Amino acid sequence: MTQQVASTRTDPREPLDPQVKALFDALQALRPAERVLDAQAIRAGSAAFIPYLTEGAPPVADEKEIRIPGPAGVIRALVFTPRKTTEALPLLVYLHGGGFVQLSPESHAKLTKQLAVGGDATVVSIDYRLAPESPYPAGLDDCVAAVRWVRENAASLGGDPSRIAIGGDSAGGNLSAATTLRLLAEGDAPPSAALMICAWFDLAMDTGSFRALGPDDLIIDDPIMEFYRGCYASEPKLWADPFLSPLRGDLSQFPPSCVVVGTIDPLCDDGLGFAAKLRRAGRDVTLQRHEGMPHDFMLFPGIDEGQRSIEAMCAFLKRALT
Predict the structure, then answer these.
(1) pLDDT value for 134
(2) pLDDT tens-digit map of 67-86
(3) Which of 3, 118, 219, 300 gives the lowest tally of CB atoms within 10 Å of its CB?
(4) Which entry of 104, 107, 125, 170 is annotated as an active-site residue?
(5) What span, in angstroms and rounded, lies between the C-alpha atoms of 247 and 257?
(6) Catalytic, out of 142, 295, 296, 309
(7) pTM for the complete prediction?
C-alpha cells in the first residue's frame, strides 16, 4: 500500500487580498471544464467580458475612431480626448494586452479613458494586427508605424508632437518597450516617456515568479502563455531577439519609464528585472510594486489597489509629459 504524503508546498499567493480572492473565485467558477486553446475560441470567450471590464469608465470630452496608414493596410485606433481645450495636449499611444492574440482597444477602453482623464493626455489606442494570423513582427511593425504617424499628425489630434508617451499592459507592455527599441535602432528619437504595466519582457518565461506562479495562475498560467508565445513567435531561437524580449535589449537610451508590477503575477520578475536594468543603465525609472496583486489587476473592477495604481500611473504621465 502506497502511503500518500501531504504536500508541504506553501502557496506564495497566500494570504490572498480579499478582493483578489473574490476575483479568483469568480474566474474559477467561469473556467470551462474543458479548455480549448484556440485563438478564435479565446477571442469569443473574452468578448463576453468586455462589458465587465469597461463598466464605470469615466466620461471623456471626445472619443472617435481613426484610420492610420500601416505597413500592411490601415491600422484602426480609438482616440480619447480628456477635455475641451485650445491648448495642445500631450499624447499617449496605448498598446493593449492580450498575449499578442486577443483583446482590443474596446476591451481596454475603461483603462485608457482613466489614463486620459487622470493623466490629462489624449490617448490613441492602437488595434495592431494579432497572431496567429499575423505573427511577429506584424504587430510590432504596426505599433512602430502608429507612433510615427501620431508624431507627424499630432496637431490633427489636438496634441503636442514633442510630448508623446507610449504605454501598454502585458503583451502591450512588451510592444511598448520593443517599439521604443525599434525606433532607437532605426535612428528615430524615443517616445517622451514609457509606461509598461505588468509587461511580458522576456519570452523565455524562465524566472522565479514564472516557475512559482505560472503552473496554476488563474489569469495567465503556463498553458495559455505557451499558446500565446507559439502563436506570436514559435521558434525558441527568436526569443533572444530584443524586439521580442526587450529585457535582453540595450536600454541605455530609454526615456523616463514607469514599470508596474503585481507581486503575485507570473510576470512580476520580468518587470522587476526590466526596472533594475534601466537603473543600471542610469535611466529615470519609477517602479510601482503592488503587493499581493495579480496580473493586470487594474483592469478588473472591485480591486481598490487597481485604482491606486492608475492614480500613480497618471501622476507619472503628468510628471513625464510636463
Answers:
(1) 98
(2) 999 999 999 999 999 999 99
(3) 3
(4) 170
(5) 14
(6) 295
(7) 0.96
Please choose, from the candidates 61, 118, 107, the residue with its C-alpha nearest in 3D space to the C-alpha of residue 84.
Answer: 61
Q: Model confidence over 174-185: pLDDT tens digits?
A: 999 999 999 999
Which of 127, 142, 169, 265 is catalytic? The answer is 265
pLDDT at 141 over 70: yes
For the residues 290-317, what does the mean pLDDT come to? Answer: 98
What kind of fold does domain 55-320 have according to CATH?
Answer: Rossmann fold (3.40.50)
Tell me, yes or no, if 295 is annotated catalytic. yes
pLDDT in tens, 88-133: 999 999 999 999 999 999 999 999 999 999 999 999 999 999 999 9
Catalytic annotation on 96?
no
